[in-house]
Amino acid sequence: MSILELKKHTSNFNFLNWTLLILCALIWGCSYFLIKHALKGFDPIQVADLRILSGGFVLLPFILLAFKKIPFKDYKYVFICSVAGNGVPIYFYPLAQT
Predict the structure, then answer these.
(1) pLDDT tens, 28-81?
(2) How many CB atoms lie within 10 A of CB 94?
(3) Whole-Å CA distances, 21 to 16, 34, 61, 97
(4) Are 44 and 98 in contact (CB under 8 A)?
């Protein structure tokens, strides 16, 4: 990609995009802070369970729409990827902070 092409693509990065990027960074960074403070009142497994439940409730409408597009024979691969990519690490973060 040339410098002119790069400049053309980055000129569309307006104030809303920067705001959303900063908001995502704050949400991502605050999760570790909130885990640390949640561990004062809950066990690590309870913290992970609460994170999974709250994330599941927020993403439920999107999950229902996305699963309609995935063939039923591929559900096992989606399950394996979700457990390996999200389920295992979500339990390790609170355990690592104890």
Answers:
(1) 889 889 999 999 999 999 999 999 999 889 999 998 898 889 999 999 999 999
(2) 22
(3) 9, 20, 23, 27
(4) yes
